[in-house]
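[agent] plan:
  1. take the single chain provided in the ticket
  2. run structure prediction with default settings
  3. attach structure tokens to the ticket
  4. add a short note for the reviewer (M.T.)
[agent] executing step 1
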Amino acid sequence: MQKFNVIEQFEIISKEIISLTQEIAEIIKKNNFDETSDILTIEDRYLKREQSIEELNKLISTSEGVKIPATDRWTQFMEKIIPVEEENINFFETKLSEIKEKLLEITKTKKLLLYNDQ
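[agent] step 2 finished; step 3 output follows
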């Protein structure tokens, strides 16, 4: 097994996080978004991404402080990931609003049906 130094490990893990974040963005932007299978895929990608973020945190932090300084690498990583993640969050907020509207409509319809049955 090849041994990487801290900077190389940072590069590998940060690329993984960026890749997973971009995969999520591609899934949610597709025209035929499936609220069942695509949500499961997104959940899987977020779990993998969370694990990678934990690895990155372990890599750069110790009880004594930070192993590698917040250099240009960190800045570049954040510049790549933040805009994509903001788009993902906006999408989910929109989806949640749509689902809430559908649920309200269903509730109104059920109340109307119950009222008409009486």
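[agent] step 4 note for reviewer: The longest helix spans residues 72-117.
[agent] ticket updated
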